[in-house]
Amino acid sequence: MKKVKLVLDTNVFIVSLPDFSPWHWIIKAIIDNQIILLITNDILMEWDEKLLERYSAVYTNDLLDLFLQLENVYLIEPSYKWNFIAVDPDDNKFVDCAIAGNADLIVSNDRHFQILKQIDFPRVNILRLQEFENLYKEQLG
Asked: What's the pLDDT at 141?
């Protein structure tokens, strides 16, 4: 099975972190090199900011360092800003990462990303967390 290459919205990343989370399988799949994760410096900065609201600086730094050391986590440097999400421009960093890194999809429950379903080029696939779980587990057979 081909590894899925994805971008995780900040909220999806954060709800997937705790061991007791029903979504923790995503983090485990990334750490176990079953999923390819694409990130940018802008995404890392947002993750850092949001993690520091919930966790210590030591935990946050260690966690982000761990992800940056994984061979299946790629730091992407987009050279173009598409600006597809006008209602929440801050979300465009995830779209730019997905396009520049040739991601299979973005996983997000944020309704602002639904505009991507109306854009034919460049095509950016978006799935809600539950939809991604269904697809992923279906592919595992």
From this structure: 52
| CB crowding 12-36: b at 16 or more within 10 Å, else e | bbbbbbeeeeebebbbebbeeebbb
Q: The domain that contains 113 carries what CATH number?
A: 3.40.50.1010
Query: Where in the sequence is the domain holding 55, given as residue range(s)?
Result: 4-140
- DSSP label at residue 105: E
Half-sphere exposure of 124 (CA within 13 A, CB side): 27
What SS3 state is found at 73?
Answer: strand
Residue numbers in the chain where pLDDT is lower than 50 = none
- C-beta separation of 126 from 120 below 8 A: no
pTM of the model: 0.90
CA end-to-end distance (rounded Å), the chain: 10
Give how many domains the chain has, as a whole number: 1
Pairing of strands 4-8, 35-39: parallel
H helix count then E strand count, the chain: 6, 5
